[in-house]
Design goal:
Number of helices: 14
Shape: globular
CATH topology of the largest domain: TIM Barrel
Bound molecules: (2R,3S,4R,5S)-2-(hydroxymethyl)piperidine-3,4,5-triol
CATH superfamily of the largest domain: Aldolase class I
Number of strands: 39
CATH class of the largest domain: Alpha Beta
Oligomer: single chain
Strand content: 25-35%
Structural class: alpha+beta
Largest sheet: 9 strands, antiparallel
Number of domains: 3
Distance between the termini: 40 Å
Radius of gyration: 27 Å
């Protein structure tokens, strides 16, 4: 049994971790432990009550016990206004205007399987794979009830947490902050690891020490954002890839979020994660309820590598849904960097022709095929094929592409809204504009009000009809601006603070409906690249375009950072032209392929202009990737070095551990350089592996060694013959 409830003590076990809470004599729900697996010992013994000045005491005990304080106790639900002066996860205003909450434990029960959340992404599992713990707390004065939901996946060492808030009183209540996660560590000296960036340079890892202050990352951009990712790690100071304790938190939400960490007066650390409160209110009338999205957490006692693999596996098997979860992903050709807006039907068919001859699977028609869109300044919203530009109907284009043996995919930006569009001229009130104010434009565009059901229905109807007409198998769902001027013409004044979350619910509804109507449709998420690279999106889109930066060397950094929280099978990665359009850098063709093969793999360049030799090389690369596809999709991922090393090396190991691929890219060349060694991981110690290089001319066995010898002694990486040289090393059990 994963969850044990025994007179107020609630213990959750996964295979290698334990999480515990306890309702005490005042019905306060204490958090008592999260760490490596232990037995059912009551860990509240570790709490040392102390009288700390200015940390007050609840009325019931205040006259005789100055050591009991909400300001110092580790709490399972931290709420504002009850004498806890740390960062708190739950804020609400009652009908008196008061913001003072005190939640008392009511009951706890275990439910079979994993709970779901209405209208929101959530980890899913078979009944045999998971259990749910539901803990109910209430503030009877405010009339508020909170159900804390924990989903326990013992095999994955993952616990999720979400909350449902119900107004069971007689008066309205306004929610101001509903952090889905609130977790206290009694002691510890932690580092916080976050993944920051910007458009075209996302998810760069940054590590800093948690000091006596509040550290936070978040987004109020209407999306999880390029700038801070909703995946963070808390780690002991000495933790590295293979040693030490660390805790990871991933928010299954693609909208505005806030992660906070605070080390308090007594050196305890609290972390919170949830919807960003700066841009959120939610009015609850009597009888109403509100679901806060889910946080997925995991801990590793063996460094970051294992922590990442816990998240990879959970996302691969329990977040990504539908047939594409287990299917070989198509190798695609996308026309964006080949043509930008400058194409016609003939050019597209030429690209498709060459792609088919090179053995690719899917042709993706990117931006510019609809309305009058020949630049990024018009037509978003007018989702009608531009037959004049295409020289044919979308139906015919689809048919001709399929005749070549390729699937047909298409780019859309459903949330975008051009002021120069028929839709805007007809429905100006569908834009998110604050009445009387000039809106902020970005890439010349506005945002459609996705909080509105009529807007959602319009988009659904348009997308459905395009998918049917074109025989579309794949959609790239893009969004190309941050969202501000948040206002909906249909929401009442008091509910405008609900815009950002309602907007996200609208996006999720459309995605869900599309998948219901077209279960085989493969949707690739995109937000100017990786502006919505989060576990929430992966519930709908099994892969996400990782970044608008397709430069192989930049991608080493971006994909390295991304790999901490997300599996390789989710990372959209393409081979593009050189000099690279974003950085101007020239890298070898082979290296661009090696980097892209560590994701979903595809090409985004004008292959019609490539030489016969280069096309032959594409055919070879596609052949290699076909063989590797399941290794990348299902295998375990190991980071063997970092982008700060002279050579970035990573490894994919098959689930049965008989095959591994070690990929490496050199990004510094020196004369007479030292040999660079890496230690592959995850092999079977007493099996023998043949080590060979897959790429190019040196396709011959380099060594035959036992798994134990390879893992302990390491392997030398083939020396670079030129700048940005790379290798693909295959390890196969013989
Ligand atoms: C941003 C995307 O990330 C690109 O790949 C491309 O689809 C453009 N938008 C098209 O406008």
């Amino acid at each position: 049994m994963a969850i044990i409830i025994s007179s107020g003590l609630i213990t959750i076990h996964t295979d290698h971790t334990t999480y515990q809470m306890k309702a005490d004599e005042l019905s306060t729900l204490l958090h008592t432990y999260y760490g490596p697996r232990i037995d059912d010992t009551d860990m509240s013994q570790l709490i040392v009550p102390r009288d700390r000045g200015f940390s007050g005491n609840p009325y019931e005990v205040g006259m005789f016990d100055k050591t009991y304080s909400f300001d110092t106790l580790p709490l399972e639900l931290s709420a504002f206004g009850d004498g806890d002066y740390r960062i708190t996860g739950f804020h609400a205003e009652d009908h008196l205007g008061a913001r003072a909450l005190r939640f008392r434990f009511r009951e706890a029960k275990v439910l079979p399987g994993k709970y779901g959340l209405p209208g929101l992404p959530a980890v899913y599992a078979k009944e045999s794979e998971a259990e749910t713990l539901e803990v109910t707390l209430a503030d009877e004065d405010a009339g508020l009830l909170v159900r804390l939901l924990y989903g326990v996946l013992p095999d994955c060492d993952v616990i999720t947490r979400a909350l449902i808030v119900e107004n069971e009183g007689q008066n309205p209540v306004r929610l101001l902050k509903t952090a889905s996660l609130s977790l206290d560590f009694l002691y510890g000296d932690f580092d916080l690891i976050t993944f920051h960036g910007r458009h075209a340079m996302e998810r760069k890892m940054e590590r800093r020490s948690i000091a006596h202050s509040v550290h936070s990352v978040g987004s109020v951009r209407g999306m999880s954002s390029h700038h801070y990712n909703p995946f963070v790690i808390l780690a002991d100071k000495n933790t590295d890839e293979t040693h030490g304790q660390c805790f990871g938190f991933s928010f299954l939400y693609s909208g505005e979020f806030l992660f906070e960490a605070e080390k308090d007066q007594a050196d305890s650390t609290r972390v919170l994660m949830g919807i960003h409160p700066d841009d959120f209110t939610w009015d609850l009338q009597p009888g109403d309820s509100f679901a806060a999205p889910e946080v997925m957490m995991s801990m590793s006692g063996e460094g970051f590598g294992l922590l990442s693999r816990n998240f990879h596996r959970t996302i691969r098997e329990h977040v990504i849904r539908g047939p594409w979860r287990d299917r070989r992903r198509p190798v695609l050709i996308n026309n964006w960097e080949a043509t930008y807006f400058n194409f016609n039907g003939q050019k597209l068919l030429e690209i498709a022709d060459t792609a088919a001859a090179c053995g690719l699977d899917l042709f993706v028609l990117d931006d510019g095929w609809f309305g009058k869109r020949n630049l990024d300044d018009s037509s978003l919203g007018d989702w009608v094929p531009n037959e004049e530009k295409l020289g044919m109907t979308l139906k015919e284009l689809g048919e001709r592409i399929r005749e070549k043996g390729l699937m047909f995919g298409i780019w859309v930006e459903p949330e975008g809204f051009s002021t120069d569009s028929d839709l805007y001229r007809k429905h100006p009130d569908w834009a998110t504009i604050v009445p009387g104010r000039k809106p902020d434009l970005s890439r010349h565009q506005l945002i459609l009000d996705f909080t509105r059901k009529d807007v959602q229905d319009y988009i659904l109807e348009r997308l459905t009809s395009i998918i049917r007409e074109g025989g579309i198998s794949y959609i790239k769902w893009d969004l190309n601006r941050s969202i501000c001027d948040k206002y909906s013409a249909l929401l009442p004044v008091k509910r405008q603070g609900e815009f950002a979350h309602r907007y996200m619910l609208g996006v999720y509804r459309i995605l869900e409906e599309l998948l219901r109507s077209f279960p085989d449709l493969l949707i690739e998420g995109c937000c100017g690249g990786g502006g919505r690279f989060d576990a929430g999106m992966l519930y709908y889109t099994p892969q996400i375009w990782c970044s608008d930066n397709s430069d192989a060397v930049s991608r080493l950094v971006i994909q390295y950072g991304t790999s901490f929280g997300y599996p390789a099978s989710a990372m959209g990665a393409h081979v593009s032209a050189v000099p690279n359009h974003q950085t101007g850098r020239t890298t070898p063709f082979k290296t661009r392929a090696v980097t892209a093969m560590s994701g979903t793999f595809g090409y985004e360049l004008d292959i019609t202009k490539m030489s016969g030799e280069e096309r032959e090389e594409i055919r070879r690369q596609v052949g290699i990737y076909r063989e590797l596809n399941s290794l990348v999709r299902e295998g375990d991922y190991y980071r063997l070095s970092t982008p700060d090393d002279v050579c970035t090396v990573w490894e994919n190991v098959s689930p049965d551990r008989t095959e591994a691929l070690v990929s490496g890219v050199w990004h510094g060349v020196e004369a007479n350089p030292p040999v660079f060694y890496v230690k592959p991981q995850g092999l079977i110690p007493d099996r023998t592996y043949a080590v060979s290089y897959l790429d190019g001319d040196s396709d011959k066995t380099a060594a035959v060694m036992s798994g134990a010898a390879i893992m302990a002694g390491g392997l030398p990486c083939r020396m670079p013959a030129m700048e940005y040289d790379s290798f693909l090393m295959k390890l196969a059990a013989v």
